[in-house]
């Protein structure tokens, strides 16, 4: 699986970690606005183009089916 992730990410541009958080949650988590982590470059693995929290609709809507989203995705951090 790791080889698959590395191969996929090698063909894409890195993004700032801030963008990774915004894609998953729709906004930065509270208290992270001035964090140095936000400026780190990261690979964003999303081959299925799963939607983030801000793209799945209102939390007041009744879900009609289980939808795969970035909200429940795992984060793999490799610091070099």
Unreliable stretches (pLDDT < 50, length at least 5) are none
The total domain count is 1
- The N- and C-terminal alpha carbons lie at a distance of 20 Å
Helicity level? 10-25%
What's the pLDDT, averaged over the residues? 83
Shape: globular
Could you describe the largest sheet, including whether it forms a barrel? 2 strands, antiparallel
DSSP strand content: 5-15%
What order do the SSEs take from the amino end to the carboxyl end, as H and E? HEHE
Radius of gyration: 14 Å
Please provide the count of β strands: 2
Strand line-up across the major sheet? 1-2
Number of helices: 2
Structural class by sheet pairing and helices: mainly alpha
Describe this protein's structure.
The chain is mainly alpha-helical. It has one domain. The chain contains two helices and two strands; from the N terminus they run αβαβ. It has a two-stranded antiparallel ribbon. The two termini are 20 Å apart. The relative contact order is 0.20.
Q: Quick summary of this structure?
A:
The chain is mainly alpha-helical and 80 residues long. Helices cover 21% and strands 5% of the residues. The chain has one domain.
Protein traits:
single chain; 80 residues; mainly alpha; 2 helices; 2 strands
List the helices and strands and how they pair.
Blueprint: H1 2-9, E1 15-16, H2 17-25, E2 41-42
Antiparallel strand pairs: 1-2
